[in-house]
Design a protein that fits this description.
single chain; mainly beta; Immunoglobulin-like; five-stranded mixed sheet; 2 helices; 50% strand; elongated
Length: 310
């Protein structure tokens, strides 16, 4: 059964038909106005950018491959250039590109293609680069003589783009602590100290990193060096240490009551106060001295002592 529009509906239908005709006329007019090379089947000669991203993210640093070779141009034009913007300030050109993201972020990578007729098209894709919360310490200076003030800087610590570092907790290794992105601490006793920084992010993630501080007391050679031969064929040395910041003690020996050509014959750990030299020929005279090496590599040596082996 065919329905006939009611007379009151006719004006409304006429207005809708007129609107459709206006749109169709505009499209046809634009198509026929194009140049012959562009006209083709009546579609405008425009490029279409198409890009793929592999992988679409990862843990920094991450290398990402970009492919724009699927981009195309309709009706009498070709792609003349490919321009990449990776969203982190870096750019490239060509249908294929590779870029390494070294920091976290939700980056908008974009490909803009330009056709031979000057028309352009842009495609975009998100690249999600993740980064674990990591601490970084810069200590200035990290060694020196007492008293030793050290400036600690944790501002190089990093975290992922969707969170923030909320705390910096310092342990200077000598019993003292501190907080804040940058702090200063003065070491008043000698030693090798492991200073640590714990950075915590807004989600509760954290990392602890450390650095070594060498705090050196003044150079003092051991005192009260004495040499005896209590047992046949052996020599016993004793002394008193006067330094805390010692990395090594060296025993030096030469043969003869007035010899000066000392050579190291043994190395001892810090804190040693005695050493026995065995296998020496009875009746032979030796001279001994003790060399101290501090944490900074400086050295000093005691006055020599003389002993005749039993």
């Amino acid at each position: 059964m065919t329905r006939t529009p009611h007379p009151r509906q006719l004006p409304h239908l006429s207005r809708r038909l007129a609107s459709v005709l206006v749109v169709l006329f505009g499209v046809l007019a634009a198509s026929f106005a194009a140049t012959p090379a562009q006209a083709g089947l009546g579609f405008p000669a425009v490029p279409f950018a198409e890009m793929s991203v592999t992988p679409p993210g990862g843990i920094a640093p991450v290398a990402v491959s970009f492919n724009g070779s699927a981009s195309l141009c309709l009706e009498g034009c070709t792609i003349a250039s490919y321009t990449w913007d990776f969203g982190d300030g870096a750019t490239a050109s060509g249908p294929l590109a590779t870029h390494t993201y070294t920091r976290s972020g939700l980056f908008t990578a974009a490909l803009t293609v330009t056709a031979t007729n000057g028309a352009t098209s842009t495609a975009q894709s998100l690249v999600n680069v993740f980064e674990y919360t990591t601490g970084k310490i810069v200590a200035t200076p990290d060694r020196g003589m007492l008293p030793l003030p050290v400036a600690f800087d944790g501002s190089g610590s990093r975290t992922n783009w969707d969170r923030t570092i909320v705390s910096y907790a310092w342990d200077f290794g000598d019993g003292a602590t501190g907080t804040g992105q940058t702090v200063t601490h003065t070491y008043t006793r000698a030693g090798i100290f492991n200073a640590t920084l714990r950075v915590t992010d807004s989600t509760g993630g954290y990392q602890i990193v450390g650095t070594t501080i060498l705090a050196q007391d003044p150079m003092l050679t051991p005192s009260n060096l004495a040499a005896t031969s209590p047992v046949k064929g052996s020599v016993r040395l004793t002394w008193t240490n006067r330094m805390a910041g010692v990395s090594q003690l060296g025993i030096e020996r030469c043969t003869g009551s007035t010899c000066t050509n000392f050579a190291q014959v043994f190395a001892l750990p810090p804190g040693s106060t005695t050493w026995t030299d065995t296998g020496r020929a009875s009746g032979t005279t030796f001279r001994y001295r003790v060399r101290v090496i501090d944490l900074l590599g400086n050295t000093a040596v005691t006055a020599p002592v003389k002993v005749k082996v039993r």
